Amino acid sequence: MVLMVFNGTVMRGQPAHGNLDGTTFLEVVRTASVYRLYSIGDRYPAMLRDDSKGAAIDAELYEVPDAVWPRIRNYEPAGLYRGAVELDDGRVLEGMLGEPALVEYPGVVEITKFGGWCAYLAARQ
Prior knowledge:
The chain is mostly beta strands. 12% of the residues lie in helices and 38% in strands. The protein has one domain: Gamma-glutamyl cyclotransferase-like (Hypothetical upf0131 protein ytfp), CATH 3.10.490.10.
């Protein structure tokens, strides 16, 4: 069992939330103010650490059984990986992050100013 932070398409109300079947939602969280968030072709977000230009990003915390993790991992797009995510309350937990090269492709837009994936999607409508 691992505690994991998610900040994109698997969050509650998002289209891929079913991939978290078998997990337990614990709480809404915010990251420490050290991340930048990017929209990858408006299909999913990628969060990268940037200590000098980062901001806090809205996310959700889940308890993920070991048996469920492979299904989640297999759904995640190339360029995302499981790594340490620092929360605004000082906890450091597992979460999904983006590889730096991922944000260099055409169609990538920085969306940090929205504070999260859901807020970005809401602003687009």
